[in-house]
Design a protein that fits this description.
Methylamine Dehydrogenase, Chain H; three-stranded antiparallel sheet
């Protein structure tokens, strides 16, 4: 039987031998505390301090590492080792702290003056101050505010010269100042500071050929036809046959002349270059109220017939844009917008006609009214019914009747004066009558504000008129209906399709869709003897 072999035993070392192995240089400082265990002259770390804020100065805590490095310093004395701006030798500032660690806060520095900022615009008033090192709540370091109750006024406020005195300054020449410079304002939206009529509240007007900012009178960046608010447009007439003459049947309002349109409106047939004589011209407007009638041809020439005791049927040879027959007188608007009247002048209906430029005219009994391009009404004479005239503007239509006048504004509201009032609602057309207004709403329905003329028919209509005691309306298909007094056949509409109609005292006249005249009713003075050409 083989004998067993014993395993070698692990040798044991003594405690002294173990400690000797950890202290090779025998200086009594074992590894890892000894910074160099091969040099008995170098032992544990000494003279190094923790530099937590890494500003080069340590605090009071000794370092546990053997070498200088990041976060270790050989210099102590940092009185705030978490703030790198606070250390020995730092510059002392006025902040309530000991910045240089000399044991005294704010030594050798002056406290700061702080200014109350009541409007929180970053600028304080020089009249309310606090002197201390730290900034108090509600105070700032700048004390140059001249109005501490208005945050929009301070040294950075921009002022703009207002040379034309229109209340709007020149946007291209601002000045920053707390105090308002002479002749300057805070609004800098004027696009032309040489013209008082040019500003954001200016009225855009057509000014063909104009150059520069002054062409944009309302400073909205849009000029003339590009600006929907522009006023003063010219009425241009279509010249389809290229003969240089335009037709009143096709018009457009524009600042600049559109292609295919001319300023002339005397063409009698815009499809025939040879049709220029007056006899070729069809009728485009008819008007009657008393015992005479006036009508306007396509070339702007007027003709009147019927009672002529005072020359009310003696139409001038001027070229007109519109005519209106009153009770015993008539008026027309010339091409230049001026008004001329003729006939009875017992109440100064004729000689007191207004001067100026007008877009339309309407005559009643003993008074007339005209409407300017901006919708301002003017009525005359002062002692007539026209003295009851509204003082505001913005109307799109004015119609004088026997003893009442009616207006229609851009919103479709009707106004009346001199009579019994007007209907309330939204309308598209209005006609003055005996003592009130006949109205047409968007659905084509009729309404009357007094009982003269009877009850209007129901239906959908596109054109209306109101005479002394009867009225008429035209439907879209040209069908014409009249109602009210019929003592002389006033409402007995003849066969045919009509484009316009006008009711008078006891007779009615209309223009057919092909431009011819027809009249019916009382003919005592020849008021229904309309021209047949």
């Amino acid at each position: 039987m083989a004998s067993a072999v014993a395993a070698p035993a692990c040798a044991l070392i003594s405690r002294d031998d173990y400690n000797a192995r950890l202290d090779l240089d025998g200086d009594g400082i074992p590894r890892p505390t000894d910074c160099d265990d091969n040099d008995p002259n170098i032992g544990a770390p000494s003279g190094l301090f923790v530099d937590e804020d890494k500003d080069g100065y340590g605090g009071t805590a000794p370092a546990t590492t053997c070498a200088l490095g990041d976060g270790v310093s050989a210099v102590s004395g940092d009185c705030n080792d978490v703030d790198p701006t606070i250390r020995p030798g730092a510059t002392e500032v006025c902040n309530g702290l000991d910045d240089d660690c000399d044991g005294v806060a704010d030594n050798g520095v002056e406290p700061q003056t702080w200014y109350f900022d009541g409007d929180s615009d970053g600028y304080g008033t020089p009249f309310t101050t606090i002197v201390q090192c730290t900034q108090p709540a509600g105070y700032v370091a700048n004390g140059s505010d001249c109005n501490d109750a208005d945050p929009s006024v301070n040294p950075d406020t921009l002022w703009y010269p207002d040379s034309d005195g229109d209340g709007y300054g020149d946007e291209s020449r601002p000045t920053a100042s707390c105090e308002q410079p002479a002749g300057s304002i805070r609004d800098g939206t004027d696009c032309d500071d040489t013209r008082a009529d040019v500003s954001p509240t200016g009225l855009e007007v057509c000014d063909a050929g104009c150059t520069g900012n002054g062409c944009d009178e309302d400073c909205d960046g849009l000029v003339d036809d590009a600006d929907p608010s522009a006023t003063g447009q010219t009425l241009w007439y279509r010249d389809a046959d290229g003969d240089g003459l335009g037709t009143v049947f096709t018009t457009v309002e524009a600042c600049d002349q559109p292609d295919g349109y001319v300023s002339d409106r005397t063409d009698c047939d815009d499809g025939n270059v040879d049709a220029t004589a007056s006899a070729d011209c069809r009728w485009v407007e008819v008007s009657t109220l008393g015992f005479h009638t006036c009508a306007l041809r396509a070339n702007g020439l007027a003709q009147c017939w019927g009672s002529d005791s005072d020359g009310q049927s003696d139409a001038p040879t001027d070229v007109f844009t519109t005519v209106s027959a009153g009770y015993n007188f008539s008026c027309g608007v010339r091409l230049d917008g001026s008004i001329t009247c003729w006939g009875t002048d017992d109440y100064h209906e004729v000689d007191s006609a207004p001067t100026g430029v007008f877009a339309s005219v309407s005559t009643g009994s003993q008074f007339g009214c005209a409407l300017s391009a901006d919708g301002t009404p003017t009525c005359w004479p002062a002692e007539g019914y026209g003295r009851y005239v509204p003082v505001h503007s913005g109307f799109v239509r004015l119609s004088a009747g026997n003893y009442a006048a009616c207006t229609l504004d851009a919103d479709g509201a009707v106004g009346a004066w001199g009579g019994s009032g007007a209907e309330v609602g939204t309308f598209v057309k209005v006609a003055g009558g005996y003592e009130g207004c006949l109205t047409l709403d968007r659905a084509g329905s009729l309404k009357m504000s007094d009982g003269h003329g009877g009850t209007p028919p129901s239906g959908a209509f596109s054109s209306i008129t109101w005479g002394f005691n009867h009225g008429c309306a035209i439907a879209d298909d040209g069908t014409t209906l009249c109602w009210g007094q019929d003592d002389y056949g006033d409402t007995a509409v003849p066969d045919g399709e009509f484009a316009s109609v006008s009711a008078g005292q006891y007779h009615t006249c209309a223009i057919t869709t092909d431009g011819f005249l027809q009249c019916w009713g009382d003919d005592t003075y020849g008021q229904t003897d309309a021209p047949t050409d």
